[in-house]
Each structure stands twice: as C-alpha cells, then as structure tokens.
Amino acid sequence: MLTLQNTRWFLLSVFVLAACSLGRPDETAPPTSTVFRLAQASLAAAPTRGFQAAPSRIPEPTPTLADADCIPGGEAPTAAHVIEAEVNYARRTVDVQHVIRMVNRTSDAFEQILLNIEPNRLPAAFTLVAASANQPLEMVEVIGRRMTLNLVEPLLPGCDIEIALSYSLTLPQISSGISGLIGYFGYSNRQLNLGHWLATPAVYRDGGWVTHDVTVIGEQLVSDIADWDVTLTVSDPPDNLVMAGPGTVTQEEDGRWRVLLEASRDFVVSFSPFFRRTATFTEQGVEVEIFTFDNAVVNTPAGPVDGAQQALEAAIQSLTMYADLYGEMSRNRFVIVQGDFPDGMEFTQMVFVSDQWFRTNPGTAESYLTIITVHEAAHQWWYARVGNDQALTPWLDEALATYSEYVFYEEFHPDLKEWWWNYRVASFVPPSYIGKRVDSTVYEFATVREYINAVYLRGALMLHECREALGTDAFFDWLRRYSEVGANRIVDADQFWMLLTDEQMELIRPIRQAFFNPLGG
Ligand SMILES: [Zn+2]
C-alpha cells in the first residue's frame, strides 16, 4: 500500500484550485479547462483524499539512485504505470491512484517534467487531488492538458523518478456533433468509455517537451510506449457488466479487473452491461474479439446481417494481410468495440468503430462498417507500432491507414477496388479538388471533412501514385522497412522518405511536389 506519510515522498497539497469560467465546446475553440496549482506545503501533509484504496498494488517508492548510478540510454519503455481506478458506473466518475515511474532516457537534465492530462481539455472532467514524488517538487501546475512538475533538483540522464498522483474524473455525456468525436472519453446510456483518461508523460524531443494545443480536429497527443498495470474496480456494478480492454485481462471478482499491457502508447477500456462478445482467432493465433450491442444486427434485403460477424471477418482478414505486408503484429489480442460516437478511434490493441456504421450497415463490404474496421486495424501498425506526431504530421499514420483500406479491398474484394476509390476518395476529392497539402497539420482545417479530404484521402492517392512509380514490390518493401525502423518509436516524415534510395526519391519527386503543393494541385 502506498503511504503518503513515507518521508521519502514529497507531497504537495492543493494550494490553489481555481476553476476558470467554462464555455461550451464549439466547432472552433476547445473549452478552457480547469487550472490547478500545487505548491509545496508540508512534507507530511495529509491528502485531501486518501490513497488507501485497498488492496493496493501501487509499489512502495523506490529510492532515487545516486547520480553516479544513473545509466543513460536504454531501449526499455521510458515509463511504467501502476494504477488503481475506482469506477462508479452509475455516477460516471473514476477515482484514480496513479504511480508513474519514469526514466530520463535523454542526454538532457530535466528541470521539469510534463505530463499530458487529456481529460482536462474538457470543463470539469478532471480534479487533481494530490501530487507527490520521491524527490522534492517545487511546484505542480495543471493548465489545460498540461501538467508541469518543477523539480527542485534536476533529473539527470539515466535517472528515474516516481510520481504519485491522485485525481478524480467526471465523464461527460457523449454529445452529438463535433464534440462527440471524443466520445472515447465519455458515457452514453449503454456504455462508459475510458480512452485517453490517464496522465501520461509528454515526449521529450530536441531539447523540449512535445505538447500540442487542443483542437477539435484530429488528434494532438504524441505518446511514447509505456508499460501498464491497471486495476479497475467498479463499485456497485450493474448486472452483467462487461469490460472490454487490451492486454492480459484477469477478472479477479465481480466488478474487479486487472489488466497488464506492455509497450503501449495508451490504455483504454470500455464498460457496458449490454455488450455481446464474439471472438475468433487469426491464422497467426491472434484472438480477435468484438463487443457489440443488439442493434449491430440489421435487416437487409438479403435478410438479417450481424455486423459483429462482418466486422470480425474483415478484421481477421485485414490483420492477417497487414502482418504479411508490414510485419507481425506482436500482440496476441485485438479488440473492437461498437462505440456510441461518430466514426472510429484507434488505441493499442483496441479500437472503436462507430455505432453509426453498424446501424447503417448494408450487410456487405460496400460499407463504412468494413472500411472503418480495416482502417482502425491498420492503425495497429501506423500509430500503435510506429508512432508519429499526430498533430503536426497526421498524414504519416492516417494516409497509411487509409491506403491500407484499399489494399484490403484489392486483396479480398477486387471487384470493389473501383468502388472504394469512387466512394471513399473521388466523391470527396475529385480531380478538380483544390485544398490543403497532404502534409498539413491538424491546426490548418476548419472542418473535419476538409481535414479527412486533404490528409487521409489525398494521402492515400499520393501513396498509390508512389506505388505506381516504384512498383508494388518496392513500395511494400518500403512500408515494411518503415514499420521495422519505426517500431516502438516516434518517427517523422524524413525518416519515412529516407528509406528510399536516391533513385527512388527521384522517381517520386514530382508526386511529392504535387501533393505537398499548397494548392493541392
Ligand atoms: Zn485513422
């Protein structure tokens, strides 16, 4: 059990808790979120809320190493998380006790550490109760999604720190419209989704912490891989409550699960008392599971069709093919969840596919249900495996995931290749299209539609032209090497292009010029 009275821990109590006036989210400006400032008060101050949620697996703090013992470098994940989360399903709240052990794997000394607090992009969703560490902290400040911990002594290269946080989350109801896009953190009348709900260390690159401003378009998180040990306890769970989650899940008792997940950029779960689970295995032994609601079964002119079976089959086919093309998945499970919010959302080993695509499913592969399922499956390589800056170079994962849709149709539904180009791409970006560059940032768009057209769809067109210029074998060899080079890392566009020979670069030069041209022409 974690005892805050332990004198090796340096506790900060809540000093200022100033909530800004909070506007409703709208199309252009994210809401101002709650600001917290914690200044050092007393080394043995009582927390405003106990850390005593028992039985706890949160480790005793590890003494910091003497500087001489710190060994820079290393390939292991930079952070390990141990989390005890108490979920109140009826109230849609979560109390989190969270210990992060973080190693400075850079060659710079850290005077401060930045954590991303995604829930605090929303009004009144996040409350910081306490923050402490196994070395003195000068100040802890949370502004928007950024939590800054100022250290009294710098954290030298190779040294580690353990940070203990206590915070509460109040989930928002998933709304319609653009703010519903982040329904992976929220609840509906039949589902509670915890995606991007935990504090995560920001990535440190080129002498600074990478932490981007919030916008409602696209994603802005950049995350390194980390190890996760998460125990979730649902107090007073509704009957038949099911948890969908990644990693190795052990249900210890009714309403209590422990999940171990290694080398993952995120940690997501979804709860519902209404989930129906369907599962099968790929040839490589990956268990593919889908959690759907009753309305996944739709009536079509050809009779009733179960969208769960349709999405499951598409996932199995696509995962098997992507493993052949891009390298083994290196995970033994893949989970799909019918999400009560628009479109889809990728996480490591688990993805959401919108309820909308199940409801409107015509019962064939000519459907967004199939398109989005195989798109999210592709993100297991282009996001979960190979990381990129999702705010500044979103095309690196989105264009590859979208082009992977085409590769799926080419392989399993060759009669639908032209349909895919017309339905998915040309109807939004016809040859006469003029718009932003493929390599635009998420901040350059006024609407989600413009963003998808420029980055996803024209990105797929660009990759297809590259394939035609290089030849299919060389093209997929390139993507496979990119997947190998970028595995468990965060890469940038240069690292993608650099894998081509000078001769190949020359072949695709006009294509890059055309698609990276500001007029899009
Ligand atoms: Zn995507």
Mean pLDDT: 87
Q: Tell me the total number of β-strands.
A: 28
Compute the number of structural domains. 2
Distance between the termini: 61 Å
Cα Rg: 23 Å
Biggest sheet statistics? 13 strands, mixed
Low-confidence stretches: 1-7, 13-32, 40-55
User: How much strand?
Assistant: 25-35%
Query: What's the name of the CATH homologous superfamily of the largest domain?
Result: tricorn interacting facor f3 domain
With strands numbered from the N-terminus, the spatial order across the biggest sheet is 12-5-8-7-2-1-6-9-4-3-15-18-17
Q: Would you give an account of this structure?
A:
With 521 residues, the protein is an alpha+beta fold. The protein has 2 domains: 247 residues, Sandwich (Immunoglobulin-like), CATH 2.60.40.1730; 130 residues, Neutral Protease Domain 2 (Neutral Protease, domain 2, Orthogonal Bundle), CATH 1.10.390.10. The protein contains 9 helices and 28 strands. A 13-stranded mixed β-sheet has the order 12-5-8-7-2-1-6-9-4-3-15-18-17, with no helix packed on it. Strands 20-21-24-26-25 form a 5-stranded mixed β-sheet. A hairpin with a 2-residue loop joins strand 7 and strand 8. The longest helix has 23 residues. The N terminus is likely disordered. Zinc ion binds next to helix 4.
